[in-house]
């Protein structure tokens, strides 16, 4: 499906009904105070947060590039609230660190579906996962300014819903056994349902990203791309990266969903990513 103005206008109509939607959301889900405050933001700020690619709409006319297959993530407020509820710790929804492993046979044997986050060193993976667990303060996700901080596969329980796996970063300062560790996991982990591949919006898809993409393709894994650090790119540069990545996805991949998830390093609300787990 192409990225079309009607889809974004549909999103705008939703935002025009924020007041009514807020009431429905609060009745349907137990939202946090922080999320309720987000929903009360002025329309322009809320639009920018929920639809971060909206500013590029005029450059993504549906008939301009017939060879591209473009989609935007268009969540409802109810979708966002439901996603937040997954990551909100409570006695009935336990969110916790489980264990770490350097080999698949050391990984916990769990019946729940798994999602994993993978990306090159310093792409912002640990920061994103830390933000996802912001409503579970007991869960410690270590974030470092130095690339290659994560050396093991880290497993986190997200209630009864799924297990989230933080994979070591590839590229600079990757663990020596990175390929054996990650390739074996991606190839043999039977309950792996979705892989989130993080790509830096400043540099785009790198040679090391291509290696990870090739593994996902070879093992026929369903995966999506997450475009990180979009607040560090100018609109023109971001537009260029979006077009290049979407063309790459459409022309050179089979298992990648034709949908890009943009996130900003400074955002505190990343629940849009969790909706597609």
UniProtKB/TrEMBL annotation:
<keyword id="KW-0479">Metal-binding</keyword>
<keyword id="KW-0342">GTP-binding</keyword>
<keyword id="KW-0460">Magnesium</keyword>
<comment type="similarity">
    <text>Belongs to the TRAFAC class TrmE-Era-EngA-EngB-Septin-like GTPase superfamily. EngB GTPase family.</text>
</comment>
<dbReference type="Pfam" id="PF01926">
    <property type="entry name" value="MMR_HSR1"/>
</dbReference>
<feature type="domain" description="EngB-type G">
    <location>
        <begin position="111"/>
        <end position="277"/>
    </location>
</feature>
<dbReference type="InterPro" id="IPR019987">
    <property type="entry name" value="GTP-bd_ribosome_bio_YsxC"/>
</dbReference>
<dbReference type="InterPro" id="IPR027417">
    <property type="entry name" value="P-loop_NTPase"/>
</dbReference>
<keyword id="KW-0547">Nucleotide-binding</keyword>
<dbReference type="InterPro" id="IPR030393">
    <property type="entry name" value="G_ENGB_dom"/>
</dbReference>
<dbReference type="GO" id="GO:0005525">
    <property type="term" value="F:GTP binding"/>
</dbReference>
<protein>
    <recommendedName>
        <fullName>GTP-binding protein 8</fullName>
    </recommendedName>
</protein>
<dbReference type="InterPro" id="IPR006073">
    <property type="entry name" value="GTP-bd"/>
</dbReference>
<dbReference type="GO" id="GO:0046872">
    <property type="term" value="F:metal ion binding"/>
</dbReference>
<dbReference type="InterPro" id="IPR052279">
    <property type="entry name" value="EngB_GTPase"/>
</dbReference>
<dbReference type="GO" id="GO:0005739">
    <property type="term" value="C:mitochondrion"/>
</dbReference>
């Amino acid at each position: 499906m192409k990225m079309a103005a009607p889809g974004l206008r549909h999103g705008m109509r939703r935002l025009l009904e924020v007041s009514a939607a807020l009431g429905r959301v609060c009745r349907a889900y137990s939202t946090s105070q922080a999320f309720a405050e987000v929903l009360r933001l002025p329309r322009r700020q809320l639009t920018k947060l929920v639809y971060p690619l909206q500013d590029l709409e005029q450059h993504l006319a549906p008939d301009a590039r017939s060879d591209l297959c473009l989609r935007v993530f268009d969540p409802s407020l109810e979708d966002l609230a439901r996603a937040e509820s997954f990551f909100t710790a409570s006695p009935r929804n336990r969110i916790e660190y489980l264990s770490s492993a350097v080999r698949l046979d050391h990984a916990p044997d769990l019946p729940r579906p798994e999602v994993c986050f993978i990306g090159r060193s310093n792409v912002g993976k640990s920061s994103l996962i830390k933000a996802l667990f912001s409503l579970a303060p007991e869960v410690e996700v270590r974030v470092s300014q130095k690339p290659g901080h994560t050396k093991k596969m880290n497993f986190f329980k997200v209630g009864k819903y799924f297990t989230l796996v933080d994979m070591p970063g590839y590229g600079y300062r990757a663990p020596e056994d990175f390929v054996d560790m990650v390739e074996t996991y991606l190839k043999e982990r039977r309950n792996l349902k979705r892989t989130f591949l993080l790509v830096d919006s400043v540099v785009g898809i790198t040679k090391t990203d291509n290696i990870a993409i090739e593994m996902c393709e070879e093992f026929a894994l369903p995966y999506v791309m997450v475009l990180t650090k979009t607040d560090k790119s100018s609109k023109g540069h971001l537009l260029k990266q979006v077009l290049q990545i979407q063309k790459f996805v459409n022309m050179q991949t089979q298992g990648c969903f034709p949908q890009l998830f943009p996130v900003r390093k400074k955002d505190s609300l990343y629940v849009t990513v969790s909706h597609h787990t």
